[in-house]
Design brief:
By secondary structure, the protein is an alpha/beta fold. It is 36% helix and 26% strand. A six-stranded mixed beta sheet has the order 1-2-4-3-5-6, sandwiched between helices. The termini are far apart. The model has no long low-confidence stretch (mean pLDDT 93).
């Protein structure tokens, strides 16, 4: 598996987005590949779960994977730094797809998205309007908007597990 560091900035973007492109073994630049846009969790970066775990496994399975740092985070641009902006994150997904379809080896009819935690919610939200996504997967997706609105007040993972156990019994 080969990994390439890239940055891209479309004409209507105010700052660059940093990404890792993971290629399958025996990658042939003259072929086209199904491609996965991999979205990192809230407070994370492209080098962690979105590329090192899920991206790596998907590349080994034959996909081109684009794992990017969200705006304001990691090596991507945007100020102020280290903020979580849900609408911008969804926009970043569309910009990553814009970049993907510019690559000659990406099959634009076979683009999927995967997101972990907050990234899972963002990729699902993006699919509501981003019809270039043909499939999406959220791994433990969390609704950050709801968490922000509720101030994490109803965050009770142990209570949720107990309730699920009672429902199964």
């Amino acid at each position: 598996m080969n990994i390439q560091n890239v940055t891209f900035q479309n004409h209507n973007m105010n700052w660059p987005i940093a990404a890792l492109v993971l290629y399958p073994d025996n990658f042939d630049q003259n072929s086209t590949y199904p491609t996965v846009i991999s979205v990192h969790p809230f407070g994370s970066c492209k080098e962690q779960t979105s590329s090192a775990i899920y991206g790596k496994a998907l590349a080994q399975a034959g996909y081109v994977v684009i794992a990017f740092d969200a705006s304001f985070q990691g090596e991507s641009g945007g100020l102020p730094r280290f903020i979580e902006d849900p609408s911008q994150r969804v926009e970043d997904i569309s910009r990553a797809i814009d970049y993907a379809v510019s690559l000659p080896y990406v099959d634009s009819d076979r683009i999927a998205g995967i997101g972990v935690c907050g990234g899972g919610a963002y990729i699902i939200n993006a699919a509501l309007t981003e019809k270039r996504l043909k499939a999406v997967v959220g791994i433990t997706p969390v609704n950050l908007g709801r968490l922000f609105r509720e101030g994490f007040s109803e965050f009770n993972p142990l209570g949720a597990l107990i309730t699920m156990a009672e429902q199964r019994t």
